[in-house]
Amino acid sequence: MVDGFVVVWAVAGAYVVRFGLDPGVAVQGHESTYVWLSVCLAVVWWFMLGAWNSRQSRVLGSGPDEYKRVAAASLWLFGLVAIISYVFRFDTARGYVGVALPVGLFGLLLARWLLRQHLNLRRQGGKSMSRLLVLGGTSAVAHLASTLVRAKHAGYLPIAAYTPGSPGGEVIEPVSGLPILGHGPDIGSILDAIDSCQADAVAVSAGVQLHPQTLRHLGWELASRNVGLIMAPALTDIAGPRIHTQQVAGLPLIHVTTPSLEGGQRVAKRLVDVVVSGILAVLAAPLMAIVAILIKFDSSGPVLFRQERVGMEGTQFSMLKFRSMVADAEERLGELGHRNEGSGVLFKVKNDPRITRVGRVLRKYSLDELPQLFNIFAGSMSLVGPRPPLPREVEAYESDVRRRLLVKPGLTGLWQVSGRSNLSWQDSVRLDLYYVENWSLAGDIVIILRTVRAVFRGTGAY
């Protein structure tokens, strides 16, 4: 419905802009009028969006796949229009096509984004969700269920578990709290469990003790019942571009590529850092001057706060920030140990008495971090990356956490756009490691755009 409205609006608007309200304008080299061409274009455009499966429930509301399919369907359509015009010598007005395509594509993407916001609100309230039966080993079921519960925007609601081959006795999965509907490895028992919980889809997770032939027959039975089948391998925090499926003798093999920030990618990231940080430093200079004056009048002490942080490969550097605390804040740190609200190696105090009046405002909107643009320009930091840790934090790192040091720390990152100081230590590490293992220039751009929204909201900063 929404797609149809946008398509008609774009095509009709392009007609009016190019030809006015005259309904009799003919296509040069053909007897048909642009009115009929517009009707055909709108109808075919709508069908093309359906042919590219852009309205499937599994792509709606989550991930970039929905937007990619909308864009691909639109570009293919106008590519076909160009080819047909050339082959049959139709002189299609460039102004007409030049308005219809960009306006229509922008309108479709905007409409899908607005629908996604509405759908996400409904899903946060438990509505418009696919009921999911989770099939697999006990620990894998608990992990998958807890992950899907956290990611409600994906649209999956775990309602029950089925653990074939596991010892009987448990009726409730202890971690996720899902009822366990059975343990039998036969298809009949599994189908009975699906019927009893009225699942819309079945997620087969790792550790499932079923023969491949049994899974194949299960897929046939689910297809006949219009119940979805989802395979959830034992891979966590792997971004889509790193996953490639290859068919070998009827077996879907999943290849996971290893990301590398070398050569051209490293040069591109550094070039973006230098150009963007330089421009932002110049544009923010008046604001930084005002902030410096406010800090000087608010409390005694230096305007800038320098602190040793650990960068890429363990190299230490002096990170710059506007001073947001009293001058002797480091000396008073020991007095607040009993009020530490952080977990792991992080030290966090929500209402830290050391923060000045101006500093509280600076922290809320991350203005205290503006001097880090000079760190980025100098090369010790990047625009996007893991949170720059303190040396004492790095000393307490476990071996896997040290992977955060494989890339430069960032002014912003996934931690900044996912809750900031409200995040636990475990969540902060998980997000930083996800960034390290799934870095891409496009991902950096998305994080920067999300940072703008997070900063203006001012939530999670203290």
Give structural notes.
This protein is an alpha/beta fold and 462 residues long. The protein folds into 3 domains: 2-124, no CATH class; 130-234, Rossmann fold (3-Layer(aba) Sandwich), CATH 3.40.50; 263-457, no CATH class. It has 15 helices and 10 strands. It has helices at residues 2-19, 34-51, 65-87, 94-124, 138-150, 187-197, 212-224, 263-283, 285-298, 357-364, 372-378, 391-395, 414-417, 425-437, 441-457, and strands spanning 130-135, 156-162, 201-204, 228-231, 243-248, 251-256, 304-310, 316-322, 382-384, 410-412. Strands 2-1-3-4 form a 4-stranded parallel beta sheet, with helices on both faces. The longest helix is centred in the first third of the chain and has 31 residues, at 94-124. The two termini are 45 Å apart.
